Every structure is written in structure tokens, then in C-alpha cells.
Give the backbone structure.
Amino acid sequence: MGTMLWGAIGYLKMPQRKDPDIPVVTALVITPWPGMDAERIEDRVTRRIEAVVAENKHVETVRSVSRTNVSYVYVELKEGMTETGEIFDDIALRLDGIRALPEGAGPIQFIKDFGSTAALMLTVASPRLEEVQVSLRADQVRAAIERLRAGGTPGKRASVVYNLPPSISAQTVVRPAQLYLAQAEQDGILRDARLLEGPQFVGVDGITNLPDSALLAHLHGFIRQRLRVAEFHPDAWQPAVVRDPAKTRTSLLAVAGDKYSYRELEQYTDVLKRTFQTVPQVSKVERLGVLDEQVTLAFSQERLASYGITLGRLRDVLRARNTALGGGQMEVG
């Protein structure tokens, strides 16, 4: 009877957790190598990672699967391990030290948080530009249009204006505007066409008898057919057509874009990521939907030829200058 009584008391006093603390002893190493067959990946990537992982004395089993374009290495620790975090950190440090992978292979992804049971997702988006700021921008656009038309040929004039967030200079999109200016005159869309420039806006102004819909259709067709992705700024607002400068504010309010640029959102989410990583309970933080930074190069083919540099060697020349190319697109021509 006493045994049963003490057993009942012990059971009631025993600490209980909704989620028992079960150490995770399994991890996964993923290494992509785009365009390579499984045999080459096995020989030059998988075996190298297996050897590095096996250097940790607490590793019990190492299994691998090599497939076209990617290598998978599974790691299992010895039974009874409790402080698995330090062991996985040591393995991650060893993986970070690998420098012998072939060109094009990587990055190495070490996944060790299979035991996580909770996740938090935050969505970061830019609000629209406030009406007060749009009004101030409209005053600048109106003044620029009036100055431009003061010395122009009289007629039914229209301005097609692209605006950018406050942190972006219009100089980044002047070249596409110049290209469209020449194309619009060549196609007979605009006459006496002139370039409209301001601190955060750029556009074209000219005489036309076409309605707004036809002007915008011609502009969008030019963007799709003639411009490359690298020549169109992702932060640009939708184009606004202004015929009467007095109605500039109304036209801009209809197309007002985001207050913050993609770069500013990227910087803000990077601060959030680094802040979350300081929390001991957080094991993994990922950012999704971030646009890769791109650099546009404008160069003279004649000058490159005078230096004996061909377009095919441009990538090698950039690497020789210790400039790393991003993983996006490189357009030549």
C-alpha cells in the first residue's frame, strides 16, 4: 500500500512537458552542382564531404546519394548523445572550411534542425508613398513639364512620366528613356519629342494626337520587345500620362508606387535576420523573395577591341579584377 501511495505521489510531482526534449541526431548536407552528372558529383563532391564529416568522432553513420545536379550526404550521430548542438556546430565549421570543391559546385547547405516543431513567418512589404509626398513630387514634375514646354512647338502635347522611390536617382533610368524617345519619334508616336528629367522621375514629352491608352500600349510594347531586364528598374512606378500640367497631381496619385525600394527592404530584413539569429532558441532563419543585386555595365566594343579584349573574355577579365559575378543573368550585346 505504501509503495502504491509513494508511486502516485511521485507520478503527480513528476515534471511534464508538452514537447519532450528529444535530441536530434540526424543532419543532411546538400551540395548542388548544376549541369553535372551523378558519377562526377560522386567522385569530386560527395566523397570530399563524406571525408570531412567523418572527421568528427561522434559521427556514427555517413550515407550519401549522388544524383544529377546535386549531392546528398546524411549524417547520424552516436546513440546517447545529448549535446548535439555543439557537435553539429563543429561539423558545420568543418564544412565551411572546404575549399577544394570544383568551380560551379556549391554552396554547401547544412540542415540540422529536423527536430524543430515551431516556425514563425514575417512578411515585410513597403507601404504606398504618402499623399503629401506624392503632392510634393507632383509639384516638381509639373514645374519640369512647364519649363520643357515653354520653348517647344505649340500643339497637343503629352508627357509620359516614370517615377521612382525617394531613395532612387532618376539617372539610373535615363538611358531607357532616351531609347524610347528615339523610338517614339521614329514610329511617329511623338513629334518634337523631348526628354523630361528630374531628381526622382524621368519621361518624354511631345506632340501627339493619340489617346492615353495608345501611348501606354506603345510604351509597354517597347519595354517588352526592345529593353532587356537589366535596363528596367524594378522600383519604378507605373507610367503616368500628363497632358495638362495642372492635373499632374491627379495623374501621379493614380499610379503612386512604394515608399521604400527593394534595396531598403533587403537591408531591413537583413537586420531582422541577424537579430533573430542572436536568440538562443532560434536555429534557422531564412529570407525568401529577396531580389538579387545586379550591376549593369555600359561599355564600348571598339574600346574593348583596342585593348584586345573580346566579349567572350569579359567574364574572365572581371574575375581577374576580383569582382564576383552574381548568380543571375549576364546579357551581352
